[in-house]
Amino acid sequence: MTLDLTPDELLSTTRAVRKRLDLDRPVPRRLIEECVDLATQAPTGRNRQRWHFIVVTEPRLRRKVGDIFRRALAAAEGHPLNEHDIRRMNHAPRSTQGVFDGLRHLTDNIHRVPAFVIPAIEGRTDHASAAVQSGTWGSILPATWSFMLAARARGLGTTWTTAQGPLERELAATLGVPYNEVMLAAFIPLAYTIGTDFKPAPRISRDEVLHWEGW
């Protein structure tokens, strides 16, 4: 069964879900397969279809992968924030605090999340030019977002994380992924949501992001 959402509602209410993941309800394999089927209808550079989706549901493996998630978060180094980043992050009162509260909750409970989805793509972009990177990432990001939209339509919650980054090689080895040939693009917790009443997020003004005929 899918939620009764218009296309605009689906696009504007597919949120990063961290605190409202139902950690006690398994996600049926059938629903994940449906989401992957829809994901692979996304655009792909030169129709190469190099995408892959690694799904982890087995409890012991989830614990191992969850441990990598925690250690990778602790090892992550973000780019320094500038004044514009900070202003935009705090455009809505308490929004940044809410994000970090949610991340702490997710980290504390990562071992209880019923499924992990790790999108991957053949071909590494380490030290590649911007042109090569854009073609590769442009062939996995749309498919992954389609997966997340399909999940939302089925009452499932997701959040895009790049927690695999600092320990990508270890995660690849744990999952049997050939690291030198395949890049792990993201780490997405997946679960039913507690309630389905998500709302559009407060964002900065359209005038700040929309440019006509140039910058």
Automatic annotation (TrEMBL):
It holds the Pfam family Nitroreductase. Gene3D superfamilies: NADH Oxidase (3.40.109.10). Residues 15-186 form the Nitroreductase domain. Keywords: Oxidoreductase. The keyword S-adenosyl-L-methionine does not apply. The keyword Nucleus does not apply. SUPFAM superfamilies: FMN-dependent nitroreductase-like (SSF55469). It comes from the Bacteria. InterPro entries: Nitroreductase (IPR029479), Nitroreductase-like (IPR000415). Belongs to the nitroreductase family. PANTHER family: NAD(P)H NITROREDUCTASE YDGI-RELATED (PTHR43673), NADH DEHYDROGENASE_NAD(P)H NITROREDUCTASE XCC3605-RELATED (PTHR43673:SF10). This is Nitroreductase family protein. It comes from Actinomadura nitritigenes. The lineage of its organism: Bacteria, Bacillati, Actinomycetota, Actinomycetes, Streptosporangiales.
